[in-house]
Amino acid sequence: MARQRDIPAAVAEAAIVLIVLFLAFVAAFAGWAVGHSTRHTRTVTVAGAASSSSSAPIDPHVAAGAHDFSQFACAQCHGDRGRGGVSPDVPALSGVASQLTSTRLRSIIDHGLGESKNPTKPYMPVWGEVISKQQVSDLIAYLRAGLPAVPTAEPPAIPQGQGLAVEGATLYVRDGCINCHGPNGLGGVPNPQSPDKRIPSLSGVAFRKQFNTDAKIIAVIRSGSVIGRAPIVSMPHWGGIIPNDQLNALVAYLKTLK
Ligand code: HEC
Ligand code: HEC
Predict the structure, then answer these.
(1) Closest ligand 2 atom to the C-alpha of 206?
(2) Which atom of ligand 2 is nearest to the CA of 242?
(3) Interacting residues of 160 by C-beta distance below 8 A, sequence separation 6+
(4) Which of 60, 165, 191, 242 is the most exposed place for a label (fewest CB within 10 A)?
């Protein structure tokens, strides 16, 4: 009787061992197959990206111009990819390169355009002392290419739900304030023909003494402040461009500075 029980037990044991070995083999094979197919997929993706970028290569100057267009806040006034729609006082730039010569475009970007003396309207700022010759050439290449979409050249996204000062810190970059007033409002950007020889800082005791209320800061951002004619760089007019809630955010950020 004992023998009769032993035999099925041994068979069962052998069967279990076989099943375990079989499962281990299946698992190993599945692991290999997944690894293999992942590697295979990756290869395909890379090849796909390479072939799509080689079929439509972006000229490095056009790409640099797209990034400059974002960095210098051209998009904030002229719209995403220069398509307008921000303010009735700011034209779209879509057709501008077919109407104007490169020399004329360079002169407009360097010297500005429009009624800089009229405090009720945006005007094209003077950029000559701020944007390099090479950057202006790249901007012109971008306009000439028809302002194409360039990956990662979009203006930085505005953080939501993290408070006004955080929003304002991003707007300070997004609206291009940082190009003229320096990182953290430290100033120091040369403006050789202006009385102070520099674009003013937006931090420090003197600034806080003169601009001691939110209303005073908001008023100067809205109206701008014209010091003189090009090549002197003046404060652009942002009224009708930057909405009120964003003006408040910019002020909240400026008040966090040294
Ligand atoms: C503060 C808003 C503002 C910013 C920032 C700005 N522009 Fe302008 N721009 C204007 C306004 C307003 C005009 C129209 C001036 C006029 O005709 O009176 C203009 C005109 C122009 C024109 C001439 C368009 C035409 O049809 O004659 C060009 C080109 C131009 N801008 C390029 C740029 C570039 C490139 C940048 C970024 C480096 C830039 N702008 C940044 C406001 C702005
Ligand atoms: C093209 C360069 C340029 C850009 C861009 C620019 N500013 Fe200015 N800003 C100036 C200049 C130049 C002055 C000095 C005007 C004066 O002395 O009348 C000034 C003055 C100011 C002042 C008054 C400070 C003072 O001491 O007179 C404030 C505040 C200010 N800017 C905020 C901003 C903010 C915020 C932005 C971004 C939305 C910005 N600016 C973008 C050039 C610029």
Answers:
(1) 26
(2) 38
(3) 167
(4) 60
pLDDT by position in tens, the chain (length 258) = 444 545 555 555 655 544 545 555 545 545 454 444 444 433 333 333 444 444 578 999 999 999 999 999 999 999 999 999 999 999 999 999 999 999 999 999 999 999 888 888 999 999 999 999 999 999 999 999 999 999 999 999 999 999 999 999 999 999 999 999 999 999 999 999 999 999 999 999 999 999 999 999 999 999 999 999 999 999 999 999 999 999 999 999 999 999
CA–CA distances in Å: residue 39 to residues 32, 35, 47, 56: 11, 6, 12, 26
pTM of the model: 0.83
Q: Helix crossing, 244-254 with 164-174: angle to 10°? A: 100
